[in-house]
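ok trying again, last paste got cut off:
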Amino acid sequence: MIHNVLFIGVGGEGVLSASVVLARAANLEGFEVRGTQLHGLAQRGGSVPIHLRFGNYVHSPTIPRAKADLIIGLEPAEALRACYFAERKRTNFVVDAFPIVPIYARLNKQEYPEMKGIGKMLKPFAKKLIMADASDICEKSLGNPVYGNIAMLGIALSNKMLPISRKSLLAALKETFPKDYENNARALEIGLKWEK
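nice, full thing came through this time. structure:
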C-alpha cells in the first residue's frame, strides 16, 4: 500500500523542511520513499506544492488526482488549490489557520477569505478536516511561527493520519535540524497535544 501526502503552502513557511522530515521518518520505518518538489518561487512567497509518497514499492513520485491520503496545508488559501488531489472518502486535511496574504492582494486591497469560509469550501473534499492554529501557538510558545510546520506533523500523527511513529519523527528531526532540534521537538509535542 502507498501513502500519499501532499504538502502545500507558500515560500518561507517550511513546506520543504516538513516534507524532508516526514520523508526521513518514513525511510527510517523501512518504507520506500518518492517525492517531487516545486520550490523555485519560494523566495518570492509563491505557491509551494510538494508530493510525498511512501510504501512498500512506489512507482511514481507524483500523486495522481483524487488520490491524496493527507493534505497538509501550511497556508489556508493554498489548501484550497490542492482540492483536485482530494477525494472525500479518502483524503484528510490538516490546515494551519495562519493566513499569508499575497503581496498583489495587499497592493490591490483585496480581502482574504475568512477561515470559516475556507473551511466550508474544503469540507466537501475532506474525509476529515482539521483547521489548526499551529503557527499562532508556536509563535506564543516558541517565539516563532515558523515551527508551525512541525506542529502540523504532530497534529496529523495524533489524529492517526500518518502510519509513522513518534520515535521516527523525532529521529528525523534530529537529522534534519541538528542545531535547532530542541525547538522542533517541542513543536512536534505541541502538535501531538493539540486539541480543538
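cool. The beta strands are 2-10, 32-37, 47-55, 70-73, 92-96, 128-132. Residues 132 and 195 are 9 Å apart (CA to CA).
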